[in-house]
Amino acid sequence: MKKTAIILGATGLTGSILLKKLLKDPAFEKIILFSRSSAEENSPKIEEHLIDMFQLDKYSEVFTADVVFCCIGTTKAKTPDKETYKKIDYGIPVTAARLAKQNGIETFIVISAMGADENSGIFYNKTKGEMQRDVLKQHIKNTYVLQPSLIAGDRDENRLGEKVATFFMKIFGFLIPKKYKMIKAETIAEAMLVLAKEGYAEKMITSEKIKTITQN
Fold first, then answer.
1. Rounded CA separation 97/181 (Å)
2. How far is CA 162 from the centre of its chain?
3. Cα 98 from Cα 132, distance rounded (Å)
4. How many angstroms separate the CA atoms of 84 and 69, rounded?
5. 90: which of 59, 63, 85, 131 fits an S-S bond (Cβ 3.0–4.6 Å)?
6. Do the Cβ atoms of 63 and 35 come closer than 8 Å?
7. Are the C-beta atoms of 127 and 90 separated by less than 8 Å?
8. Whole-number CA gyration radius for the chain
9. DSSP assignment of 27-78, as one string?
10. What is the arithmetic mean of pLDDT over 178-197?
11. 67 forms bridges with which residues in the sheet?
């Protein structure tokens, strides 16, 4: 039976790559997008909802699918206000997980980050950790939390810090332990697709394991 997927964050780096993969995959017949701006992809497979993402819970009637891919995320530079940052990195994924549970969606795949820890003294790590905790609390049958290290790929916005980190990682990569090495957005998107179709034995998936899933 062909599947229906929901993507949150289809206009971002990883989400846009994932969308292209789903459009080409015959296993998926419908892709529902929830975002504040258009993904600008024309396909009969796409059903796009341009909404206020902070009010996602108002769209429960159309939040129905076989799998949810949550690629939502921001950065300190892009969203310096901590309250807004938490609404994005914690509020949206947790709301999506609650809707998925409510509507009987059995697979939920979310991108978190390396270092996520609900007990961390660092706000950003703590926020990701709390998100992971509360997504898992929904007890969705197939829940997968990806914890990538620095994500490499071509972005529209200018992220100076990431560019500097990428530069040094390329030069001194041989000195960096495997779990801290950069990971391509393409690899993450491919892993999400494999997880949706084949599953995995573990719920928490580190950068190293993401690469193992795709063999990239």
1. 29
2. 18
3. 13
4. 22
5. 131
6. no
7. yes
8. 16
9. TEEEEEEEESS------TTEEEEE--GGGGGGGGGG---SEEEE-----TTT
10. 88
11. 5, 107
Q: Which domains does the chain have, with CATH numbers?
A: 3-214 (3.40.50.720)
**pLDDT of 1 over the 90 cut:** no
Please give the model's pTM, rounded to 2 decimal places.
Answer: 0.89
Q: Tokens 């997504």 map to which residue?
A: 135
**DSSP state string for the chain:** --EEEEEE-TTSHHHHHHHHHHHH-TTEEEEEEEESS------TTEEEEE--GGGGGGGGGG---SEEEE-----TTT---HHHHHIIIIIHHHHHHHHHHHTT--EEEEE--TT--TT-SSHHHHHHHHHHHHHHTT--SEEEEEE-SSEES--SS--HHHHHHHHHHHHHGGGS-GGGS-EEHHHHHHHHHHHHHH--S-SEEEHHHHHHHHT-
Could you tell me which residues are beta bridge partners of residue 146?
111, 205
Rounded Cα gap, residues 168 and 71, in angstroms: 26
pLDDT at 176: 54
Lowest mean per-residue pLDDT among 52-56, 113-117, 154-158: 154-158
What lies within 8 Å, CB to CB, of 60 at 6+ separation is 99, 102, 103
d(CA 149, CA 115): 8
